[in-house]
Design a protein that fits this description.
483 residues; alpha/beta; FAD/NAD(P)-binding domain; Enolase-like, domain 1; eight-stranded mixed sheet; 25 strands; binds nicotinamide-adenine-dinucleotide
Amino acid sequence: MSNESQDIIVVGGGPGGYVAAIRAAQLGGKVTLVEKSKLGGTCLNVGCIPTKVLLHSADLLEEANHANDFGINMNVNGFDWRKVLKKKESISSQLVNGISGLMKANKIKVINGTAEFTSSNTLSITKADGTKVTISGGKIILATGSVPAIPPIPGIKENENCIDSTGALSLTEVPKSLLVIGGGVIGVEFASIYSRFGTKVTIIEALPKLLPLMEGELTALLRSDLESKGVEIHTEAKVHSVESSPAGAKVNVESKGEIKCFEAEKVLVAVGRRANTASLNLDKAGIENDRGRIKTNPKMETNVKGVYAIGDCLGEVMLAHVASVQGEIAAENAMGMDSSYNGKTVPSCVYTNPEFAGVGLTEEKAKEEGIEYITGHFPLMANGKALIMNGGTGMVKVILGKEFKEVLGVHILGPRATDIIAEGALAVGMEATIEDLIETIHAHPTLTEGVREAALAAENRAIHAINKKVEGREPRLIKELVL
Ligand code: NAD
């Protein structure tokens, strides 16, 4: 065993950890990053990036199937699933290699091993080859991420056809049928992938709506879009057991007092993720946690001096972009600066087709918190670029404070919603007002015009939709609104 001393030790090489390591190195720190598996973590290897590659392949297939509508004579000859998976692997590897290059360029030492506390400021690392090294004396940033949560539903663990999101990314064949337990982000994104590759998909969601934390009015639109594409959705439905069956699995669901049975070749369990801290030995270091979820203050400091924690291992908002920002903050504080995390501008993005993104308050949240607000809606069916992109089913919705008309929330269902939401995040962050959105000239033809039009609609002055003042109703009933 060897003993080393470092300025900064980062545990975990995902988008939280590797960003923290780079920021600390930029500030002059001598940095070691410990990662037990591949650099890039869940995001690059079995999360955001590979999922988005599969979604992009599904988008291409869908577009190709509609190419004739745009005058392109095309006979789509199915797809080659092995090539789809190969593309997914190659993009992930390219990005992981890129992170490796960034570590070298920033002179960050990477140790391939598993770290655990032996005291409040000492980590013992078991390397991949079995040797051990102890590192102490430095500031420690914990960024160990999360793992899929498997609920205690009888029959799930024993059934090999019950898979998690990692399994769903590497199925060797497209299943004939897929039942998804959980209509959250993972459930809805995989439903969007497999339904477009021909799988019969059924979603079982315990709560009354899909994507429970997102803007309800737009969630309802996404639900009908998914249903129109053949996805069967059951809300207020809870899985209470899974049995094996010749098809793969038989799933017993309780819905509104009735028991229903569904058969599917594969069952995707997507009911959330849990903090991945079991191997850290947090108690040895005296780090405060709630069943493994590490507690921090906005400076990302734990209760133990010199130990910080960021990202999914806090068990709060499990998003790569949140982990990365928290990583920068932890690194800055560890290097003597004074930075704090503020989650006000965090966008939530769902990469379905149409995409769904939101930032700031939803209408439901504004009601719950007793905030006085007004809304503006703009249907993307009246946006030229959306129609060109076959994306007319969407909507932009802005939530504004009633008195000062400051932007409290922006929600978009439509093509490129996950890109356009950056404008909403900027507006929410800088407390822009309706006038700021309206006075900003948005290029034509672009999808971003929908954001300006939604702001105009809040004052009954939308140009390309019928306004409340004119028709005595809000411009939200899409089909009745297009001029
Ligand atoms: P989630 O919390 O988003 O959704 C889980 C859903 O399962 C909830 O709607 C919940 O009501 C439902 N549920 C729980 N138990 C159930 C049961 N027994 N029967 C039926 N429904 C049940 O979790 P997720 O979709 O697994 O995602 C995990 C994490 O990963 C989330 O924090 C998510 O934000 C993140 N993620 C983000 C993205 C993205 O940003 N695009 C993509 C994938 C995952």
